[in-house]
Amino acid sequence: xxxxxxxxARKPAFVPETRxxxxxxxxxxxxxxxLGRALSDLQRMAPDAPRGGVVLDIGTGQGHSLPELAARFAxxxxxxxxxxxxxxxxxxxxxxxxxxxxTLHAAHAERIPLPDASVDMVLxxxxxxxxxxxxxxxAEVARVLKPGGLLLLAESTRAYIHSWIIRxxxxxxxxxxxxxxEFIALVRDAGLQVDADRxxxxxxxxxxxxxxxxxxLGLGLPKNREETLINLVARKPG
Length: 238
Fold this sequence. Notes:
Strand order of the largest sheet: 3-2-1-4-5-7-6
Largest sheet: 7 strands, mixed
Strand content: 15-25%
Helix content: 25-40%
Radius of gyration: 18 Å
Structural class: alpha/beta
Number of strands: 7
Order of helices and strands: HHEHEHEEHEHHHEHE
Distance between the termini: 36 Å
């Protein structure tokens, strides 16, 4: 029995974007070179992605992922989730313009307001590194996915989040950042299957502390490096 004066559950810890970060998420650079490129890579690794089902987009932000999801995967329904203040207002126009019905959820990924086994595919694009309890968020992803459902995850690794340019312009919970290998292990610990041919570690110029200077100078990419980005497709067994 719960005491009448028991404290309410704590709000999940999430580090919101800076003002610069919110502006950057509205730019063509973000839509084309970050979001679009990651989705193309994920789509390549997910030829079995369901069509006509239910998609959950975690960390929707201003909604630029919505028309991309509609065009690439043809779902019947999209659930868009984000804990940022004013999320629903920021995302409203994109949601209305999306050719697929969109339901907005101003909520945290650690507490997804959807039933068990109700989602065919989850997109989590550049969101997990904002969340403090990443394991709890992935446990929720596993809960809402149907057996055989897919998680499409695109993330920045510790090497990128800890770089000088990201520290200067953005805000993150620095103590929970992970390497590519640690992200893979975290997803597997949530009970999701990750095969080697569904893992990609693109080393894009904008994710490197030299901003591509080595290539511009003709020096090539370093052979020994810590990966800056990871894209993976995970499947819920069953």
